Amino acid sequence: MKTAAVNTAAEDAAAGRTVAESTPPAPLAEPWSPAELEARLRAVGEERYHHRHPFNIRMHGGDLSPEELRRWIVNRFHYQRHIPVKDALITAKLPTSELRRMWLRRIQDHDGSQSGEGGIERWLRLGEAAGLDRETMLRTDSALPGVRLAVDGYVNFCRLGSPLEAVAASLTELSAPDLMRTRIDAFERHYPWIESEGLAYFRTRVAQGRRDSREALDLVLGWARARDDQERAVAALRFKCDVLWSLLDAVDRAGRREQE
Q1: Ramachandran sector of residue 16 (left: φ over 0; alpha: ψ -120 to 50; beta: rest)
Q2: What is the mean pLDDT of residues 178-187?
């Protein structure tokens, strides 16, 4: 048997074939069913979404000081203001007018159809309700370096990744409506010093997140038919969860340094 193998290798070499060319390709992995792919995507959110981060757990338990909460609002705003930027990058990748119109609505949801509207404006009002001035929030140097790095990483991922990966990364929205409801209850219960009108962002995102996640999930399930595409979609969602987790890591560490 050993002699036969040596002879085969010699024949391949004589014919100019490489080992890779002479080795039969590994069989392709069977694709998951749409139901299994959806289950795997939802499992990523259940296991890795930032609702499990210690900072969010402290927030929802009422354990943040006013200064800690304001620091989070300022730094999270750096992420919020880049949402329409990443959505513009995704829109440019979509192949049909119908899909581009659908995704363009997300930009309008955050930028508004005119001045004084949209999710970015609602987040600024949240900051004002918490005692921050909008000039502070609007300064880019108000965000921590770790937060800027995480947000830049996400924007570049949407710029450089495939349409499938960029859309799949947005599927943290599958978990967002439940988080928004938890957050509304926590703020009303534990942080009554924040004016109720300031919670409009959270209230609006419950319905928007449910709608947006359904649209994005339908796209991913329709596009990701081959196993390698399906695995890329799951990996993209894991990456987005890491971005959100890293953002909170930076905010949490900054607070702990001040307490030392």
Answers
A1: left
A2: 97
